[in-house]
Structure formats: structure tokens, C-alpha cells
Design a protein that fits this description.
The chain is an alpha/beta fold. It folds into 2 domains: 109 residues, Rossmann fold (3-Layer(aba) Sandwich); 175 residues, Dihydrodipicolinate Reductase, domain 2 (2-Layer Sandwich). The radius of gyration is 21 Å and the shape is globular. 44% of the residues are buried. It comes from Actinomyces radicidentis. GO terms for molecular function: nucleotide binding.
């Protein structure tokens, strides 16, 4: 346990009691060193998560409850105003992804927390997925040698939760964040195509490709018009490929085989052969629970586990580039 038994629990407030907020409420209540003392949602409490807490109408009522920390799970369009109010009040805050509805708004939020010396985190929960955490550790340990490419596929039916954004800001934002994190470098450029097929205002399909500053090439397929669920990240490098399935939390390693090649024409080409396949045994904890512990620890002084607001803004810059690339049919340099 990372907090001492005698440490005072953080007084935590939650605003936004929708499909994500209800899970945050459950996890905060179960997290050592955190007490959920106030909940707010102007739209009501349709999942009944308040329990014996009064349902507060807005962020100002939440702040008045006297908070050490807050979790923001309102729709994206409200992230900026809610987060800025919490910063002004001196409350350490984690905001659900993406940090805000525009890059400029995200920058204002990040700056407000930095100016006050407060912990500001963004809820990119995929980074806490056991398969991706194990993958990152193994890449850091050099088990793949040089990394060549990262590709992600995030496909499935339309999510039941009401979304005020398109598939790029809602879902592709996860893949952009996790790709830069897993590969250890930001995006250098990106090229994308989007489609509008469901009659909604925003795009519902995207394919994007790009290059990171360390030369790793990346590709993302994201949509919510596929009748099966797929959440996969594949990292290929000189020693083989890792396949992370974030639906099941499984990580599989496909090794490059070692076979002598006697055929002269092929021998001078550095190809690969199929080698052993290993499904790795990894500890599987609920990602959201780990994410809350990282936030708690950051408030306690160890910020190594959180996704910072500055990183959240960087991801929004790539999101902007994806949408610009699709709209203008060109590769966008970052």
C-alpha cells in the first residue's frame, strides 16, 4: 500500500454522473486513501450513484463541500469551465479524456493548474490496461529490440452513451495517447481519412497513419460502425511482434524465428521467419482502479503514474492534425 495507514483520506468530489461517472464513483469509494464526499450533475443522477450523498447542482456547490481533489466526468464541451473553476479553487483534478473540446481550451486548463502548482491529470485509462502496461515495460527492457511500427484497431458498435463528439475525439484520442506513450515519442506527422456513414453530424469512421519523431511508423483504424468489438495494439520490431488485446487484457509475443537461409538471392535481404508464440501471464487489475490510485499518489507527491494535462494538450494537437488532414486531404506536420 502506497499510503500510510495513518494518512488522512483525501476528500474527493465527482462531477458528471453519467456512464463514466458512475464507474468513477464506485472506484473512488473503493480506493484506499480516498473518500467520495460530494457528487454533482446538473442533468441528475440516472444511475443512482449518489447513495446517501446529496445530489449537488454544479461545480460551485461541489467546491463548497471542501475538497482536496476532484474527478470531472461531464461531457467534453463542459470540461474547460468546470476544470477552470476547480483550478481557481485550488483543487487537484483529474479530467476525463480528452482534456477539453479544443486545443486552445485544453491549453488554458493545463496552464491554470500549472500556475497554481496543482496536480492536473487526464483520464486516459488505456494506459492502465494490464496488457499495455506489460507491453510498455517489455519494450523499455529491450525485448523487441528496435521498434519499427505501432498499429491500433478500435472498432465496434455505436456506444450507448451519448457522445457530443465524433469518433476521432471520442475514441481515436485513446490510440494517439497510448501509441506515443508505448513508443516513447510524439507524433511528427499524420495523414487521415474520415467518413460520415451513420447520419450523425460528426465523423464515425477514421483511418489515420503517421510517423513519430523517433522514426516509428503508426496506423490507426477507428470506428463505431462495426458489429464486433476489437481493441488491439500491435507493435512490431526487430525481434518480433507484441499483440496487446485491451478487451481481454492479454499480451502475446510472436518471436522472429532463426533459420539459416542458404538461398543466395534471399540471404542478403533481412527478412523474418515465424518463430515461437508466447501468451504472457500478467496480473490483471481493473484499469480504472489503478488510474485512481495513480491520481491519489500524484496528489500525495508522486506524479509518475498520471497522464499530465500537458500530455493531454499534445494529444489534442494530434487530433486537430487528424481532422485537418482529412478535411484538406494532405499530410499535416506537427
Amino acid at each position: 500500500m502506497s499510503m500510510s495507514e495513518t494518512a488522512k483520506s483525501l476528500r474527493v468530489g465527482l462531477i458528471g454522473l453519467g456512464s463514466m461517472g458512475r464507474h468513477h464513483a464506485r472506484v473512488i469509494r473503493a480506493t484506499e486513501g480516498m473518500d467520495l464526499v460530494a457528487v454533482a450533475d446538473p442533468a441528475g443522477d440516472k444511475f443512482g450513484v449518489a447513495g446517501d450523498l446529496p445530489l449537488l447542482p454544479d461545480v460551485h456547490a461541489l467546491i463548497d463541500a471542501g475538497l482536496d481533489a476532484a474527478m470531472v466526468a461531464v461531457p467534453t464541451v463542459y470540461h474547460e469551465e468546470v476544470a477552470l473553476a476547480l483550478a481557481e479553487a485550488g483543487v487537484h483534478t483529474m479530467v476525463e479524456k480528452p482534456i477539453a473540446h479544443t486545443t486552445e481550451a485544453g491549453r488554458r486548463v493545463a496552464d491554470a493548474f500549472a500556475d497554481k502548482g496543482l496536480v492536473g491529470a487526464v483520464g486516459y485509462v488505456e494506459r492502465c490496461n494490464p496488457a499495455l502496461r506489460a507491453l510498455r515495460q517489455r519494450l523499455d527492457a529491450g525485448e523487441l529490440g528496435q521498434v519499427y511500427q505501432v498499429l491500433t484497431r478500435r472498432q465496434g458498435p455505436f456506444p450507448a452513451r451519448i457522445s457530443d463528439v465524433g469518433v476521432v475525439k471520442d475514441l481515436a484520442t485513446h490510440d494517439i495517447d497510448l501509441t506515443a506513450w508505448v513508443a516513447g515519442a510524439p507524433y511528427a506527422n499524420v495523414s487521415a481519412q474520415v467518413a460520415h456513414r451513420s447520419g450523425r453530424e460528426n465523423e464515425d469512421m477514421v483511418v489515420a497513419s503517421g510517423r513519430l519523431t523517433n522514426g516509428v511508423i503508426v496506423s490507426h483504424v477507428v470506428n463505431w460502425l462495426t458489429p464486433f468489438k476489437e481493441r488491439v495494439t500491435i507493435v512490431t520490431g526487430e525481434k518480433g511482434s507484441f499483440v496487446a488485446d485491451t478487451l481481454t487484457g492479454d499480451l502475446t509475443f510472436y518471436a522472429n524465428g532463426t533459420m539459416e537461409n542458404t538461398w543466395d538471392q534471399v540471404a542478403n535481404f533481412r527478412g523474418v521467419t515465424e518463430g515461437d508464440v508466447t501468451r504472457l501471464a500478467i496480473e490483471k487489475r481493473e484499469p480504472l482502479a489503478l488510474e485512481q490510485e495513480h491520481f491519489r499518489d500524484a496528489v500525495g507527491g508522486d506524479a509518475s503514474g498520471i497522464v499530465t494535462m500537458t500530455e493531454g494538450v499534445g494529444t489534442l494537437e494530434v487530433i486537430d492534425a487528424v481532422l485537418t488532414s482529412a478535411a484538406e486531404n494532405r499530410t499535416v506536420e506537427l
